[in-house]
Amino acid sequence: MLDLKDLIVDVYTTPCPICIRPDAGIVEVQKIMQDSGVRHLPVTDSTGRILGLVSQRDLQALANIETVSPLQASDIMVESPESVSAGCLLSEAVFKMSEHMIGSLLVLDGEGKLDGIFTSTDALNALIEVLRGEVIA
């Protein structure tokens, strides 16, 4: 039986095949989220370096704001979003999300590139597996 203290975040991390550029328009960002069924989109530069993160919550905050100029992802993204390294203990990742009151963490590989995203839904899925005894070594 696997000790819960040994679970790593990688097992529950969701691959993140879609990233957006900082100059992506808000309408485009909303469409990408809707079409792909995601609530978080990493913002990267042309080399894949993480610049920020746009969440569905960020977009919802705009609903009541009128603006004269068109907004881009860079205007609403969270810069330097919270992240963990691949191989991080699941308990550390979940604690970090709780501590910072956030709904996701970017999971980065050894070179600092995006490996995936760990969301509150992923954390709940891990909890379900643990409670059902489905976690095996």
Describe what you observe in this structure.
The protein is an alpha+beta fold and 137 residues long. The chain has a single domain, classed as CBS-domain, CATH 3.10.580. Helix content is 33%, strand content 20%. It is built from five helices and six strands, in the order H-E-E-H-H-E-E-H-E-E-H. The strands form two sheets. The chain has a three-stranded antiparallel β-sheet. The chain has a three-stranded mixed β-sheet with strand order 4-5-6. The radius of gyration is 16 Å and the shape is globular.
Mass-distribution shape: globular
Query: What is the H-and-E element order?
Result: HEEHHEEHEEH
Strand proportion, as a percent range, falls in 15-25%
Structural class label: alpha+beta
At the fourth level of CATH, the homologous superfamily is CBS-domain
The description of the largest β-sheet is: 3 strands, antiparallel
Sequence stretches where pLDDT stays below 50 over 5 or more residues: none
For the secondary structure, the number of strands is: 6
What is the multimeric organization of the chains shown?
Answer: single chain
The CATH architecture is Roll
Helix share, percent = 25-40%
CATH class: Alpha Beta
